[in-house]
Write a structure and sequence with these properties.
Strand 1 and strand 2 form a beta hairpin. The strands form two sheets. Strands 1-2 form a two-stranded antiparallel sheet. Strands 3-4 form a two-stranded antiparallel sheet. Helix 1 crosses helix 3, helix 2 packs across helix 3 and helix 4 packs antiparallel against helix 5. It is built from five helices and four strands. The chain is mainly alpha-helical and about 140 residues long. The protein folds into two domains: about 55 residues, Winged helix-like DNA-binding domain superfamily/Winged helix DNA-binding domain (Arc Repressor Mutant, subunit A), CATH 1.10.10.10; about 60 residues.
Length: about 140
C-alpha cells in the first residue's frame, strides 16, 4: 500500500540542464520551442533540449501547446517569482538580519557597551551570514 501523499506519476529530478530549461520556461512567460531552448541555453543540439523537455512534460512540470512548451506546474522549492525574476527566499531572510544589524549598530547602541549588546550583535551577524551563505549556494547550484 502506498502513502496517500505519494506521487503516482513519473518523477524527474530538477537538476542541471533540466532545471535550467524549467527556469527558462518559467521566466519566458510565453510558449517556447525546442530550438529556442537549445539556442538560449547553449545546449549541444535540439535533441538534448527535446529529451529534457520530454522528461519535464512526463513529470507534469511543463505541457506542450500549439506554440511550444509552457509551465504546467510551478515548483519553486526555494525560489519566489519577483517581477519576472526567480529570487531565493533566503534573500529576504538575509535582508531582514542585515537591516536588524544596522539598526542595532546605529539606533540601539547602549551608552556603556556590555556583553549582552555584543551577544545580540554576534547573533544577528551570524544569522545574516548564514542566510547570505545559503543564498549564494542556491544561486550557484543548478538545482531547484
Amino acid at each position: 500500500m502506498t502513502h496517500p501523499m505519494a506521487s503516482t506519476g513519473p518523477t524527474y529530478s530538477l537538476a542541471g540542464n533540466g532545471a535550467r530549461i524549467y527556469r527558462f520556461i518559467l521566466k519566458a512567460r510565453r510558449p517556447v520551442g525546442i530550438r529556442e531552448v537549445q539556442r538560449h541555453l547553449s545546449l549541444s543540439s535540439p535533441s538534448v533540449a527535446a529529451r529534457h523537455l520530454s522528461k519535464l512534460e512526463e513529470s507534469g512540470l511543463v505541457k506542450k501547446d500549439g506554440l511550444g512548451y509552457v509551465p504546467d506546474k510551478i515548483v519553486l522549492q526555494h525560489l519566489i517569482r519577483l517581477r519576472g525574476n526567480l529570487v531565493p527566499k533566503s534573500v529576504f531572510n538575509c535582508a531582514f538580519f542585515m537591516i536588524a544589524l544596522i539598526i542595532q549598530l546605529t539606533i540601539f547602541t547602549p551608552e556603556p557597551l556590555n556583553a549582552g549588546y555584543f551577544f545580540a550583535i554576534g547573533t544577528t551577524l551570524a544569522g545574516a551570514l548564514l542566510f547570505l551563505y545559503e543564498t549564494f549556494n542556491l544561486v550557484n547550484t543548478e538545482t531547484l
